[in-house]
Amino acid sequence: MATFVCVRFEPKLKQFYERLRANGKAFKVAINACMRKLLTILNAIVRDDSQWDAHAL
Fold it and tell me: Half-sphere exposure (CA, 13 Å, Cβ side) for 29?
């Protein structure tokens, strides 16, 4: 569910999702790619003990 929200409201992830869809990727493939990207970002936030910064994406 978090991925769906990020794809709608987070500009960088939205752009990433739209680029994948424009390149012909299926809906589930594009959502899973965004999910993986989001998990990587969240893992780095936990690892570095930092806050969410939309400008740093």
Answer: 8
- In 3D space, the residue among 53, 51, 37 whose CA is nearest the CA of residue 3 turns out to be 37
3-49: pLDDT as tens digits: 999 999 999 999 999 999 999 999 999 999 999 999 999 999 999 99
* 3 state SS for 6-57: HHHHCHHHHHHHHHHHHCCCCHHHHHHHHHHHHHHHHHHHHHHCCCCCHHHC
d(CA 23, CA 45): 29
Domain ranges of the chain: 2-47
